[in-house]
Specification:
208 residues; alpha/beta; Rossmann fold; 5-stranded parallel sheet; 11 helices; 5 strands; globular
C-alpha cells in the first residue's frame, strides 16, 4: 500500500502516541523505531540509505500506511516524494521541552556503553550515524541540538505545500489529524504513551 501519512517530526514529539492513533485510524501498521527493534534485518536497509543507497521506499514499507519517529523521519523528504498524495505530519513541541525529553531518553541511551547484544549494538550504531548525518554531529550539545531541531522543523514548513502539511502538537488530539485525512473522530481518548518515565523504566534507566 502507499503511505497515507509521512511523519516528519523528530522523536520525543508524541510519536509513539501518534503511531497508535494512526494505526487505529488507518487500520494498518505505522512504521516507528519499534519496527526496527522487531525487524533486525531493517537495520542494514537504513544503514545503506544513510550511505546514499536507499531502498525502493514503497516496496520496503509496503505493509505500512504511515511513518513516524526515527529513522523514517530522517528521510521524510524522500518518503514524501515517493508518496505524493500522503499527508506530511510535522509533530512538534516547545524546543526546551523537546531537548529535556530527548536528553533524558534517546540521547541518554546513546551515550551509554555499547550493549553486549549484537543486534542492539548494530541498531545503536545505525542510530548514531543517523543523528550525525541527518540531524547534527553535535547532537550531544544542548545549543546545537536545539538549533538543529528548529532548523529541521522550519525546513519542513518551508518545503511542504500547505495543503499537504499538518503541524501537530501533543495535546491537539484526534481532530486535526482526522480533518486532514477526512476521517471521523474516534470517541475514545487519544493515546498517551511513552512518557519520559515510561521510556526510562522500559530500559531500566534511573531517574535523572
Amino acid at each position: 500500500m502507499a503511505l497515507r501519512v509521512v511523519g516528519a517530526g523528530l522523536g520525543r514529539t508524541g510519536t509513539h502516541s501518534l503511531k497508535l492513533a494512526l494505526e487505529q485510524l488507518l487500520g494498518a501498521p505505522c512504521y516507528h523505531m519499534f519496527e526496527v527493534m522487531d525487524n533486525p534485518d531493517h537495520i542494514a536497509v537504513w544503514d545503506a540509505a544513510l550511505r546514499g543507497d536507499p531502498p525502493d521506499w514503497n516496496r520496503f514499507l509496503s505493509k505500512y500506511a504511515a511513518t513516524v519517529d526515527w529513522p523514517a523521519c530522517a528521510f521524510w523528504r524522500e518518503l514524501a516524494d515517493a508518496n505524493p498524495d500522503a499527508l506530511v505530519l510535522l509533530s512538534v513541541r516547545d524546543t526546551d521541552d523537546w531537548w529535556t525529553s530527548a536528553h533524558n531518553t534517546i540521547f541518554g541511551v546513546m551515550a551509554r556503553d555499547a550493549p553486549p547484544d549484537d543486534t542492539l549494538r548494530r541498531q545503536r550504531s545505525m542510530a548514531h550515524t543517523m543523528l550525525e548525518v541527518r540531524f547534527t554531529p553535535n547532537w550531544r550539545d544542548e545549543a546545537a541540538a536545539k538549533a538543529a531541531y528548529e532548523h529541521k522543523n522550519d525546513e519542513v514548513r518551508a518545503s511542504v505545500p500547505p495543503h499537504r502539511l499538518l503541524e501537530w502538537r501533543p495535546g491537539d488530539g484526534w481532530e486535526p489529524i482526522c480533518l486532514a485525512l477526512g476521517l471521523p473522530v474516534p470517541s475514545e481518548p487519544f493515546p498517551h504513551v511513552n512518557t519520559t518515565a515510561d521510556f526510562r523504566a522500559m530500559l531500566g534507566i534511573e531517574a535523572p
